[in-house]
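Sample entry (222 residues):
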Amino acid sequence: MEINADFTKSVVIDTDQLLWRPSPVKGVERRMLDRIGDEVARATSIVRYAPGSQFSAHTHDGGEEFIVLDGVFRDEHGDYPTGTYVRNPPTTSHVPGSAEGCTIFVKLWQFDPEDRNQFKKNMEAELNASVEGVATSLLHEDGREAVTFHKLDSGATLNSNAVGGIEMLILDGEVMINDDILSKNAWLRLPEGEALSAKAGGLGAKIWMKTGHLRFVRAPEV
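Predicted structure, serialized as tokens:
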């Protein structure tokens, strides 16, 4: 299966307009944003857990990172409330689920194969002081990518011309990019060489962003 698999092209999706598709586990559904592969896939998705749903134990051979968008995600290592960013690198395993239900934004098979840095962070708690109306958390950085969280005041602009491509998810509020208004849950992917300028609307905006990683796109090892 291939979905938005040409990484030389820009993609903008209002994810709220996508249909939920069933996963192999009852009570867990997903909205697929980009994908190379079938059930083992290099994938970017929004995943919804019904209350009480749970996957069986499994290992993330290619790594997994996710943001909890609403509710509380849970595994045997603890609870992850809304606003938590988690990295589970290759070789890690868990039994994921949710007692009350939750929605996460998740990326699979997009790690450096040698990465072993496992952690969770409260994105808001990591914010630095605002500069020209933009407060930033550096969530993760290595030789392949940088992962950040940004809180924009009304009218503030987030700019990036990062090498290696740009990806962002609007977590709250809205931004204007090239005369287009992107609202909460909109997802944007820009190829290498394309710059970003996102101006926050009247209520400000919160944005998760990853840069640099599109230089390293690969299919999963099955």
